Amino acid sequence: MLMFNDFDSIHDDLLPFWSLSPAEIRQRTWEAIADPSKNIGGIFIREGKARIAPNVPRNQRLMLDSIVQIIDKFGQWLPDMDLAFNLNNECRVAVPFEEMQTIKADAAYAIDKEKAENDLANNFSPEREVGWQKLPEAPTSADYFVTLSRRSTWDEFGASTCPPNSPARTQRIWNRRDFCASCALPHTLGAFFANWTLASDICHQPDLANLHGFYTSPNTFIGTHRLMPVFSQSKAPGFNDIIYPSVWNYIDRVAYAPTPEHPDPPFTDKQPDLFWRGATSEGFAGGGGTSWRGMTRQRMVHALSLSNDTAVLPLPHPVASYKRKLRYVPVAPAALRAAIPVDAAFADIARCGEPACSAERDHFLGPAPPEFASLDQSTRRKRRRDEAKKNTTPLQAHWKHRYLLDADGAGFSGRFLAFLRSRSLPLKVHPLHREWWHARVAPWLHFVPLDPRLQGMPDADCVALAI
User: Fold this and answer.
1) How many Cβ atoms from other residues are within 10 Å of residue 379's Cβ?
2) Where does the pLDDT of residue 276 fall: very low under 50, low under 70, confident under 90, or very high at 90 and above?
């Protein structure tokens, strides 16, 4: 698969900002980075060299340090400018649908009135630094940012980016137990994931309000409906952050780097199992709430933790005239295990409050031993956490497994590119968060896609055997 001059993603991200004048873009960049409490850090580029804005707290500089190192490799060709980088995992900017239509119209008008190519100068304007306002001595308050940490964001930052007559705006899925067939129908064929691109459209999927931690209860969310030039590593559908390649793609921590101790053997020599390790980092499970039961990673591990009970799965209907219908079929555990052995477990039960933490640990680790009852809560929690950590697996040890499962965390998954570089076959739960590479990979060619409802996971596992 050859990619040549593929700049569509960059064009789409920058298009709305044509509706703003250069002065407005500079002003909004200043507003974003002038308030450190909003977790947006500034990087200044002067005379080809990048440096971190002085108001960035020391404990938030690690990611920006890496960005500076990346920029300095090509900074000599950049003009003087200030850039605002999102320091959170969660994306930040979501302009409501109706307002975005006006913005896009203004942007199209501005592009139409742009100078002809022959009239453009081949150099940057002089003394650009004076156009960038200096940071204030004391932090300012960006009042147009809304904090919805550990609360639902669906209505205000999900459905609001969809057309008024879309299912996301007109329907509420109160039944959280059963599979919403109408929500998945546009992008699936029976139990199989069929359209990777269409699945990225949340507007026909109102059930996503309860199926991803970003919408049910993000651990940290500080967002705005104002069009702000903020760079993020990934973004959810409808958001207007500007995507840049994550620094995780450039550091050793998540690099594909087989070693003699952890080699990457040929596919046929690998352990023939489906493997996943991770943490409950997708969203926050608060107090006595049960929102964690709907989060992707928790549903995924639950679905893969096969018991001795017969599983009832939604599978394609055998009658041809009902080929786009599903029917529930009892499947024996032995039949599921025979397809592909599964090794999926949490190495950390995190981002939760009691009693939700204990409920998650009991569900995924099994009930606590009776002797734990005599321990104080702090010691009991530590012992249970240590129990989960026994599942920790180094990234380089993944390569011995034939099939590698991947799913979103609080934002994107930092391991997926390493999985693609390996000789293993990745299975990817359709990510809510889009990254820079999304238009450059092809489902069923580079990886096996899974619907976020996971209804086709057993079927996809079997199909993976043939790839």
Assistant:
1) 11
2) very high
Residue 261 sits in the same domain as residue 231:
no
What are the tokens at 382? 């530590």
Task: Identify whether 318 is preceded by a cis peptide bond (ω within 30 of 0).
Answer: no
Place of tokens 């450039």: 250
- Position 178 in a domain: no
Cα–Cα distance for residue pair 164/463, rounded to 1 Å: 38
Confidence (pLDDT) at 382: 87
- 310 and 386 both lie in a single domain: yes
In the structure, what pLDDT confidence band is assigned to residue 466 with cuts at 50, 70 and 90? very low
Domain count, the chain: 2
Query: Please, is 321 exposed, middle or buried when counting C-beta atoms within 10 Å of its C-beta (0-12, 13-18, 19+)?
Result: exposed
Whole-number Å distance between alpha carbons of 123 and 114: 17
Q: List Cβ neighbours of 163 (8 Å cut-off, separation of 6 or more).
A: 97, 169, 203
Of 387, 343, 392, 399, the residue nearest 361 (C-alpha): 387
Residue 153 lies in a domain: no
Indicate if 314 and 229 belong to the same structural domain. no
365/294 same-domain check: yes
Q: Are residues 283 and 225 in the same domain?
A: no
Domain that holds residue 42: 8-142+221-243
Pick from 23-27, 235-239, 319-323: least confident: 319-323
Query: By the 8 A CB rule, do 412 and 246 touch?
Result: yes
Residue 357, domain member (yes or no):
yes
Given a cut of 70, is residue 171 above it in pLDDT?
yes
Domain presence at residue 66: yes
Amino acid identity, position 34? A
Q: Label residues 294-314 b or e (16+ Cβ within 10 Å = b).
A: bbbbbbbbebbeeeeeeeebb
10 Å Cβ neighbour count for 372? 13
Residue spans of alpha helices (H) in 113-244: 167-170, 181-184, 213-216
Residue 347: φ, ψ to 5° = -100, -5
Distance CA 299, CA 95 (A): 30
Give the model's pLDDT for residue 375: 83
